[in-house]
């Protein structure tokens, strides 16, 4: 962030912020003093949009009034409910509508996509992932390797940072892909690493993976709603994301899936099938013989989850009204840059506290991960007592994610002030 922006009073930035009004669209939990908390946990569970309750109510009404006829007569037409999410989801991730579908939950979708895009052979059987990936991704990939009769220790290759570094270098990822060459079946990494907050160069990784004949996919749990994504242009093969983090669609909410256009008309691809993936024009003939829909829709299994999807629809509408990811990202970079300035201005030695998220805005989303070498838990509890909700990741990382839809510059300054107080009290105690 520029020095000018860092020294502009937060009140002024909030007053001139074109997205400031969106804060009113969310319920802010109360802090210990009853005042709204400063919520920095959108990376884990996004806040509740006020529109969510009405969106769910509408479907309760339809169910109450119409029963099964709601599939055809509800104002929202349950039968095709998932289709109403496609256009906005496609814009969100930079995809064609054909390439996107909303369904299931994230880990379920990871498995469904790996069934199609991790097809190990005797010679090409490795799958490349981040070391220390989110546990669900680790377990999903391990179990996929076992499903193919492979030893996970042989099949899975993990990318790890260089000694003394916390994040991966793109050139090291490219080099590892080139080294694995013909043995590499699939690359599957996060769009943004959940722990460090590092955003990966998805275009470069796709190119490198394709150069050796591998499929390339991304788990966008921490990227969707956080970064401006261009999955189609980046030539990504497949991706999926959850909607309850930066997309504010409620705990355990539904999930999105991307499958590149080049696979849209490939009924021969191995996949797990269900009736909702079957050609919709003949679905209700209920006949034998699965014929997948074109595009990502051909990976659906089950009929639409109306309630989580209703909330997701209300949430996506907010993102669209805010001007989409380009507008959100502009504010996001300012919020995160300001938070970073506050932390750096503490002037603490890295032996005490350091930001492990990359300093380059192109290599991060809104989250900053702060490694606190001493008294980290105490700092976390201190923040909580001030009404600042962050999250704690063992052994000693505090994640702080200012979210452009509902966080203000004042929120960021509250964190800055609390950090300064904590460390000045600490130095007073130590002196
Ligand atoms: C949040 C998250 C998950 C959670 O998976 P669910 O199936 O939604 O419970 C999985 N992977 C990553 C990378 C995540 O960040």
Order of helices and strands: HHEEEHHHEHEHHEHEHEEEHHEEHEEEH
CATH topological fold name of the largest domain: Aspartate Aminotransferase, domain 2
Report on the biggest sheet.
Answer: 7 strands, mixed
- Corresponding CATH architecture of the largest domain: 3-Layer(aba) Sandwich
Kindly, what is the distance between the CA atoms of the first and last residues, rounded to a whole number of angstroms? 34 Å
Describe the protein's architecture and organization.
Keywords: Hydrolase, Pyridine nucleotide biosynthesis, Pyridoxal phosphate. InterPro entries: Kynureninase, PyrdxlP-dep_Trfase, PyrdxlP-dep_Trfase_major, PyrdxlP-dep_Trfase_small. It holds the Pfam family KYNU_C. Belongs to the kynureninase family. It catalyses: 3-hydroxy-L-kynurenine + H2O = 3-hydroxyanthranilate + L-alanine + H(+); L-kynurenine + H2O = anthranilate + L-alanine + H(+). This protein is α/β, with parallel strands linked by helices. It folds into 2 domains: about 5-45 and about 325-430, Aspartate Aminotransferase, domain 1, CATH 3.90.1150.10; about 55-320, 3-Layer(aba) Sandwich (Aspartate Aminotransferase, domain 2). Helix content is about 35%, strand content about 15%. It is built from 14 helices and 15 strands. The protein has helices at about 5, 10-15, 50-65, 70-75, 85-95, 105-115, 135-145, 150-155, 170-180, 200-210, 305-320, 325-345, 375-385, 410-430; strands at about 25, 40, 50, 100, 125-130, 155-160, 185-190, 215-220, 240, 255-260, 355, 370, 390, 390-395, 395-400. The strands form 4 sheets. A 7-stranded mixed beta sheet has the order 4-10-9-8-7-5-6, sandwiched between helices. The site of pyridoxal-5'-phosphate has 12 residues, from helix 6 and helix 7.
